[in-house]
Amino acid sequence: MSPVLLPDDFVLTSRWFFSPKIGNIVVVNHPVYGQIIKRIHAVNTNGDFQLTGENAQSITSNQIGWMPRESCVGKVIYSIKNKYKRVSLDY
């Protein structure tokens, strides 16, 4: 989700009263890619949704496919930038 979210950022999610809407950023459990964070691109009448990334190097909506509503861990409601980046110390 770069540049919106960076690899070391923290996100707070919620499933309460969640109804998928275009533009929502969500965390989902994908059967191939594992747990991913993407933006909802389209929603069908069953509540299933299609996802898209913000980065040109992101996997495509076609690669991700339609996701069932049950795969959603939650909608991202807050993000915290991690100002303390991991540093590798070589001795």
Outline:
With about 90 residues, this protein is mainly beta.
Structure description:
The protein is mostly beta strands and 91 residues long. The protein has one domain (10-80): Umud Fragment, subunit A (Ribbon), CATH 2.10.109. Helix content is 4%, strand content 40%. It has a 6-stranded antiparallel sheet. The longest helix is centred in the last third of the chain and has 4 residues, at 61-64. The termini are far apart. The mean pLDDT is 88.
Name some characteristics of this structure.
91 residues, mainly beta, Umud Fragment, subunit A, six-stranded antiparallel sheet, 1 helix, 6 strands, globular
Tally of structural domains: 1
What is the topology, as strand order, of the major beta sheet?
1-6-2-3-4-5
- By DSSP, the count of extended strands is 6
**Number of helices in the DSSP assignment:** 1
Topology at a glance:
Elements (H helix, E strand, L loop, with lengths): L9 E5 L10 E6 L3 E10 L5 E4 L8 H4 L1 E2 L4 E9 L11
Antiparallel strand pairs: 1-6, 2-3, 2-6, 3-4, 4-5
